[in-house]
Amino acid sequence: MFKDLDPLLHAQLRLAVMSLLMSLESAEFTFLKEKTNSTAGNLSVQLDKLAEAGYISLEKTFRGKKPLTTCRITPKGVAAFEQYVNDLKQYLNHNPL
Amino acid sequence: MFKDLDPLLHAQLRLAVMSLLMSLESAEFTFLKEKTNSTAGNLSVQLDKLAEAGYISLEKTFRGKKPLTTCRITPKGVAAFEQYVNDLKQYLNHNPL
DNA sequence: GTAAAGTGGTTTATTTTATAAACCAAAATA
DNA sequence: TATTTTGGTTTATAAAATAAACCACTTTAC
């Protein structure tokens, strides 16, 4: 009855990041940090997890002399997000038996 | 932008239990165990947490000689569930900026 | 009747996660 | 030139989920 929820997406910060990236071509680290109201440490860790799963790509460059991390959702990430949203519906629409 | 999700509800098993109880007058331990496909140990722990938060009530009696645990959602639980579902929408409907 | 397995759980231990704290290099500011 | 700020990473700690072990009692099989 209840499908398992993708544990990578069923976590507040990672879900927020993915949600933002779903509607954005790309987003910078600092932008995500602000929008999600997270600490840099936490965000850094969670971005790495999403990247390791292949849900997002991370491009690390420099803007002038300062580091610049740019994030993009991948096709795999889009698919995973959509699947997650779909699976979650079972939990939210409390269907009677 | 992203409201904090109630950590008590943002957990697969507890959410599944609450989802079931939203549409049921009451449910027995074994019923919830089957429907959620969980182990007795895990379910026991998570039910206790929901009960401690006042989201459900647990009635422990006997049926014949065997223990019988009956679970019910409380008004507080209903409110929390509805709030959670509402908050979650922000994360799912990826609104552009 | 008594050993073995099953029911309906609880308790404790282990693993996994999330979060926070500490740190680092470079740059900007005072 | 010391101090703070920026843009992060790495490491340590706290919290959570899960699994394993256990318990009381019952039923079934010898």
TrEMBL record, chains A, B:
Supply the InterPro entries for this chain: WH-like_DNA-bd_sf, WH_DNA-bd_dom, WH_DNA-bd_sf
Q: Which domain of life is it from?
A: Bacteria
Chain ranges of the Winged helix DNA-binding domain: 13-92
Protein's UniProt name = Transcriptional regulator
Its ancestry begins with:
Bacteria, Pseudomonadati, Bacteroidota, Cytophagia, Cytophagales
